[in-house]
Amino acid sequence: MQGMKEISEAKLLEAVRTGDRSFAVFFYTPTCGTCKAAARMHEVVEALLSELPFYSCNVNFAPSLVAEWQIRSVPCTGLIRNGQPPELRYRMGDAGELYRYYQQQLNETN
Question: How many domains is the chain partitioned into structurally?
């Protein structure tokens, strides 16, 4: 399993602005135990949805993004598409639920 690629606040905002490709982003902090479990679930989902790029963003280094997108807590995830900020999801559930969430989001894109 490759694992999510870390993305900086600046690169994430630039990727949203260019809007040429859909991708998933997982927001976390390194000291959050729930975030570590959610990251493992995201890695499973990433392996199943190989067509969708997955990124992770440490909110400690993304204060402007946290304020602009009103990220209330971590872990948090969303699908960025058409150059729009994601509808944020805070409930991770299990890997199956997360997989269905991304499948549904991708189907709405097409």
Answer: 1
Q: Secondary structure of the chain in the HEC alphabet?
A: CCCCEECCHHHHHHHHHHCCCCEEEEEECCCCHHHHHHHHHHHHHHHHCCCCCEEEEEHHHCHHHHHHHCCCCCCEEEEEECCECCCCECCCCCHHHHHHHHHHHHHHHC
Task: Quote the percentage of the chain above a pLDDT of 90.
Answer: 74
Q: How many other C-beta atoms can be found within 10 angstroms of the C-beta atom of residue 40?
A: 12
> CA nearest 109: which of 7, 45, 24?
24
Give the structural domain span for 97.
5-109
Indicate which CATH number applies to the domain containing 29. Answer: 3.40.30.10
Tell me the C-alpha distance between 94 and 42, whole Å.
10
Closest CA to 98 of 42, 55, 54, 58: 42
Give tens-digit pLDDT for 67-98: 999 999 999 999 998 888 888 999 999 999 99
